[in-house]
Design goal:
The protein is an alpha+beta fold. 17% of the residues lie in helices and 42% in strands. It contains 2 helices and 10 strands. It has a 4-stranded mixed β-sheet with strand order 1-4-3-2, covered by helices on one side. The relative contact order is 0.19. The model has no long low-confidence stretch (mean pLDDT 92). It comes from Oleiagrimonas soli. Residues 9-134 form the VOC domain.
Amino acid sequence: MNAATRELQPFHLAFPVTSLEQARAFYGELLGCPEGRSSEHWVDFDFFGHQIVAHLAPQQATPHRNTVDGDDVPVPHFGVVLDMDAWEALAARLRAAGCDFVIAPHIRFRGQPGEQATMFLLDPCGNALEFKAFADRSQLFAT
């Protein structure tokens, strides 16, 4: 069964942050992700229908970088595939907020299979996020 014919299930991701207050400001306020359960050590967020959990962990490994279509992509990173209108609205909101992008919003693999809009940014704790969109969602796994 391919991704186009099955119902997408929400993923769960737990990741380290150095400050729950900064995580709440970034994920809750800037990105607009509703907050779920929490404790003094972690916070759940509804990340575009997926469950992410920011865990207080002041020490974490230094990220790595790999080149993808000319971009210096931070690894590890996580994100979400949005529809193009939502991606453009988010890019505009982040630009208006003065976001410092790791990789500014642009089109990757232009004119090739898998052409996509992409942007990367860091949360206040140094976690890398990618937001992408496809004009044609069937290109998500194109080779």
